[in-house]
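Subject: Protein entry, chain in single-letter code together with its fold tokens

Area: Proteins and the way their chains fold up in space.

Attached in line: The record itself begins immediately under this heading.
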Amino acid sequence: MAYAQSGAIEGPPQVAYAVSKRFGAAVQRNRMRRRLRSAIDLLSGQIPPGAYLVTTQPEALSMRFEELIHSLDDCLARASGDRRETK
């Protein structure tokens, strides 16, 4: 799930990650943050400027990386108000 700040923000997108303790130990939480950060890096050219807060469910740990990228791309598009077609 992704939330976007309304209003104009110049420059590259600003992304924060919130991974709760329900993911389990710090190892799992940090692994999820690294996966999210890596997915955002791959999508960075497609994300409109703005401030985003990305949260996720524990099931995301077992997703294939390609599925995570697709899901994150879709959530960010909806959060930013961008209704482009996602692959």
Remarks:
- The helical segments are 26-43, 65-80.
- The first strand starts at residue 2 and ends at 4.
